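Ticket #4471: structure output looks truncated?

Reporter: J.K.
Steps to reproduce: submitted the chain below (399 residues) through the standard prediction queue, then opened the result file.
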Amino acid sequence: MPDFDPLDLHGLRAGARVVVAMSGGVDSSVAAAMLKRAGFDVIGITLQLYDHGEALGRSGGCCAGRDIADARRVASALEIPHYVLDYEQRFRDRVIDEFANSYLAGETPVPCVACNQNIKFLDLLSTANELGGQALVTGHYVRSRYESNGWQLHQAVDEERDQSYFLFATRRDQLEQLRFPLGGLEKPQTRALAKKYDLPVADKSDSQDICFVPSGRYSSVIEKLRPGAVEPGDVLHIDGRVLGRHPGIVHYTVGQRRGLGLAQGEPLYVVRLDVERRHVIVGPRECLMTDRIYLHDLNWLGDGRVDDVLDDGIDVHVKIRSTQPPQAAKLSVDGGKPVVELVRHEYGVSPGQACVFYSGARVLGGGWIGSTNAIDNAAANVGCRQNNESAQGVHVIAT
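Returned output as attached by the reporter:
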């Protein structure tokens, strides 16, 4: 097994200075060790992104107190310079605050994308350049490839660990300066390298949660950040019936079934969040069905001009969630808005999520979900039910 994948290190001469983003976990530590053993001039940088004592009170999220200490230990073992940079305020402004704002707007945000886009591959990449680094190296499971028409982004070999979904917003000019040496490895191989290099974090468990959200309870973080902004309201069936009360829309996401506290004769799901009226609107699963997804803020990494591609339309595969396999779709434009038309229906697609485009293993880019046609489908579905059941005094909620 090679110590590094030469493909991902294209254009770097032996002995060149590289900056490695070290989170204190196994993956970034192995990446630093691989580059050091390959003869590069390695500098390690760890970002302090939040008040770990206040936000967590535990380990297990990236860049917490223990993780910073672990990164220092690894850097010392590798005999490389190591710096801790205080990015706490910018992380609060660009990631945590936007995370809270998105949930309060009835969306389901993906903060890891925002962190990569607005912190790691923006400010940290700039810092790497200031330090004379020829590249910024990370422990992400993704591959970059240099072709005749420039740099491309590809899925990792290890499909279960692939992180390309979270890197769709990476720009072409940033790809030129980024390297991902773990993209050609599977996780067990990375663990084996950590032991081979005798790294002090070789047996450290992987982080699971959003790093600044303790125990996965994102609503508690939002309530702390925006005191008074979380207000109760009504839970409505999509046919207009009031079914109960809720403590605040931030506790709900589109597609959610559990935790609704409703005793009805049918399974109910969150269909829509009406922020202005503070309504949580629920309905049967078929009300979540969508096959058209409208996007905004596209990042295009494929060939050609994005406007030309949208005008002509292109067959792609898309991921709407990081854990799902790509599914067939067509990317085009409708009324001036980029739109993805799914070959088969999807359920529970929420505004605020990312929709990432693929051609085989290549990442063509992606965009943020603004809306879908699920409500139109839901209204039609409920209308059919009403006609069939001859319902009286019941109305479909207007959108």
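Triage note (M.O.): checked the attachment and the full token line is present. The chain has two domains: 13-216, 231-399.
Status: closed, working as intended.
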